[in-house]
Design brief:
Layout: H1 2-18, E1 34-38, E2 41-44, E3 49-52, H2 55-58, H3 67-79, H4 90-102, E4 109-113, H5 116-131, E5 135-139, H6 148-153, E6 169-172, H7 187-205, E7 210-216, H8 231-241, E8 245-249, E9 273-276, E10 288-292, H9 294-299, H10 315-330, H11 333-355, E11 359-365, E12 368-376, E13 381-382, H12 391-403, E14 405-406, E15 408-410, E16 413-416, H13 424-437, H14 439-442
Parallel strand pairs: 3-14, 5-6, 5-7, 7-8, 8-9
Antiparallel strand pairs: 1-2, 2-3, 4-10, 9-10, 11-12, 12-13, 12-16, 15-16
The protein binds pyridoxal-5'-phosphate.
Pyridoxal-5'-phosphate is lined by residues 115-117, 120, 143-145, 216, 220-221, 249, 251-252, 277, 288.
GO molecular function: transaminase activity
Protein name: Aspartate aminotransferase family protein
Pfam families: Aminotran_3 (PF00202)
């Protein structure tokens, strides 16, 4: 309506006067206004409806404005809107029970945080105290959050400006078959060589100094590359052999994104610590956490855990998590994510690769896919540089938006991550738009 659009224009002016934005030079910013959000759609400042293939920050797994979750937050707000973490609260207890029930193996204890980066900070603190070791091994091309330690553990270019080189972090190459660091030609070779490499890194860093290996179950922000069969099982085996804790970062893929409740479930792997956030309550209220194994939990039975947060297990966030998880179960959303990956997103994105020469690679699982754009399929030269943007990718993003599709754009990739309950009709509509938008990059591709 006209009122919404007028309010949006006021909001835009105030934003440009007073809001300081993430990861951006402030001067040239022209952020998009969202005036309405419902299900798998958002409406921009001109009232244009867009299909949300980004799930915002890959977190609105159940879509926008799910009535059961909105009602649960309203009910909780009317009863107990906030409470100190020391006091028992029914929303927090039930959220913890549900997370423990869904998490693999003996990850039965939950420390709640406000978001993903804090979950990573606390998982690493727990691992260091449990092992009495300091070093953390993390993967290149990873993203673990924007706080000081989490961004230092991060392996993508986002850490460059904050990398202190002294946070006790060493890095290794993860498997990435399309751009193999190991000159592998098959996923099997990639998995085997990546594991040999990781073992060498452990040995050369000194196994007795390494507290944890932290790894996204399916690396997300930095490129959505699904680990080849055998890799995650191998990491589990290696870390166990050297007495190192395995922290699986499930912040982006946890709670159904890949068509299983957790990414590690694809490989039957049980980590020692598992971080989550985003999808746990679809981002309706900020929430994250660490799921903790019995062995790590036991470290803190007689010894105080040195850490806490005013809002650990906030009732509004936990009530939203309970309602979200129940809605996901009731509506079969995780199975639906698996189905749309196999039946719609995978096949249709591969068709786009056949039709558009600038598409160099398509990969993913469930409702989590990357389309990687190149100037030349033979050289695989990316359409935007590592850690940067390009006019061509900007043009592609602009064309998607103009045609009514909101994608997630990073470097030379589009990430396709719609809500898990997006209807088949809307998915096809979005993919048709993507097909049309990709015509703008065809001109930039050789061959
Ligand atoms: N870990 C992973 C795997 C993520 O994808 C993210 C965010 O994208 C984070 C951690 C950080 O989460 P937050 O931004 O909620 O702090």
């Amino acid at each position: 309506s006209e009122d919404l659009l007028a309010a949006g224009r006021t909001a835009y002016e105030l934003d440009r006067s007073h809001v300081f934005h993430s990861w951006s030079a402030q001067g040239a910013l022209d952020p998009m206004t969202i005036v309405r959000a419902e299900g798998s759609h958002v409406w921009d400042g001109e009232g244009r409806r867009m299909i949300d293939f980004s799930s915002q920050m890959v977190n609105t797994n159940i879509g926008h404005s799910h009535p059961a979750v909105v009602a649960a937050i309203q009910e909780q707000a009317g009863r107990i809107a906030t409470i100190a973490p020391a006091h028992v609260n029914d929303a927090r207890s039930e959220a913890a029970r549900l997370v423990a029930e869904l998490a693999p193996g003996d990850l039965d204890h939950v420390f709640f945080t406000n978001a993903g980066a804090e979950a990573v900070e606390h998982a690493i603190r727990m691992a260091r105290l449990h092992t009495g070791r300091d070093k953390v091994l993390s993967a290149y091309r990873s993203y673990h959050g924007g706080t000081d330690l989490a961004v230092n553990v991060t392996g993508s270019a986002r850490r460059f400006a904050s990398d202190r080189g002294a946070a006790g972090v060493a890095r290794f190459f993860p498997p990435y078959t399309y751009r193999s660091a190991f000159h592998a030609e098959t996923p099997e070779q990639e998995a085997g060589r990546a594991l040999e490499h990781l073992e060498q890194v452990i040995q050369l860093e000194g196994p007795g100094t390494v507290a944890a290996v932290i790894l996204e179950s399916v690396p997300g922000t930095a490129g959505i590359y699904v680990p080849p069969a055998g890799y995650m099982e191998g990491v589990r085996e290696l870390t166990r052999r050297y007495g190192i804790l395995f922290i699986a970062d499930e912040v982006m893929v946890g709670f159904g994104r890949t068509g299983r409740w957790f990414g590690v479930d694809h490989w039957g792997v049980v980590p020692d610590l598992m971080t989550f956030a985003k999808g746990v309550n679809s981002g309706y209220v900020p929430l994250g956490g660490v799921a903790i194994s019995d062995a790590v939990y036991d470290t803190f039975t007689d010894r105080a855990y040195p850490g806490g947060l005013t809002y650990s297990g906030h009732p509004l966030a936990c009530a939203a998590a309970v309602a979200t998880i129940n809605a996901m179960k009731d509506e079969g959303m995780v199975d639906n994510a698996a189905r749309i990956g196999t039946e719609i997103l995978g096949p249709r994105l591969r068709q786009l690769m056949e039709r558009h020469p600038a598409v160099g690679d398509v990969r993913g699982l469930g409702a989590f896919w990357a389309v990687e754009l190149v100037r030349d399929r033979a050289t695989k030269e990316p359409l935007a540089p590592y850690g940067g943007a390009s006019p061509e990718m900007g043009e592609l993003a602009g064309e998607c938006k103009r045609l009514g599709l909101l994608p997630f754009v990073s470097e030379n990739r589009l990430h396709i991550a719609p809500p898990l309950n997006t209807t088949d009709e809307v998915l096809h509509e979005g993919l048709d738009i993507l097909d049309q938008a990709l015509e703008v990059t065809d001109a930039h591709a050789a061959g």
